[in-house]
Amino acid sequence: RQRRHGFNHESIVVWKFRSMRHAAADATASRQVCAHDDRVTRVGRFIRATSLDELPQIFNVLSGEMSLVGPRPHAIGMKTGETESALLVAEYAHRCRIKPGMTGWAAIRGSRGPVDTEAQVRERVQLDIEYVERQSFWLDLWIIAVTIPVLLGDRAAVR
Predict the structure, then answer these.
(1) What is the C-alpha separation between 159 and 157, in angstroms, rounded?
(2) 3-state secondary structure of 108
């Protein structure tokens, strides 16, 4: 479980399968998981590589806190370098005008996993805002259809 930004910046608890050693988990996400992170277990590497760790979020969707498609919910307090990611981009709050999603425009456009630089935060937020402005039933169907092949072919997923 991790607290993340939800609709209108409200705090929501996002469910995931545990992929890290219990004592090493960072609930504040001040330290993002990176490739070959020693905090991630062997099983954790597999479920992260296959995105199976995200499956429990279906309960967030069923409870109405999340949608199937929308901007991925960022952890509250997530940092890029020494600065909280939400403070790096003035338009950050716009991505929270709709419910967060299990998959989204940014994710299928290659912006998934850790964000290490301010430029990566800006790119992801820009993609999220594009989705918020273009959101439609048909776009959501297309994103869902593209998500599985993207996940299966994504070598950038944190293992």
Answers:
(1) 6
(2) helix
Closest CA relative to residue 32, chosen from 103, 101, 113, 110: 113
Question: d(Cα 132, Cα 15) in Å, to the nearest integer?
Answer: 23
Beta bridge mates, 79? 84
67: containing domain = 2-153
pLDDT digits (tens, 9 = 90+) for 37-96: 778 888 888 888 778 888 999 999 999 999 999 999 988 888 887 778 888 888 888 998
Question: How many CB atoms within 10 Å of residue 68?
Answer: 16
Q: Are residues 30 and 38 in contact, defined by beta-carbon separation less than 8 angstroms?
A: no
Which pTM does this prediction carry?
A: 0.79
**Single-letter amino acid code for the residue at 29:** A
**75 occurs within a structural domain:** yes
> How crowded is residue 58: how many other Cβ atoms within 10 Å of its Cβ?
13
Tokens of 70: 């929308």
In total, how many domains does the chain have? 1
Quick one: which of 31, 131, 152 has its CA closest to 72? 131
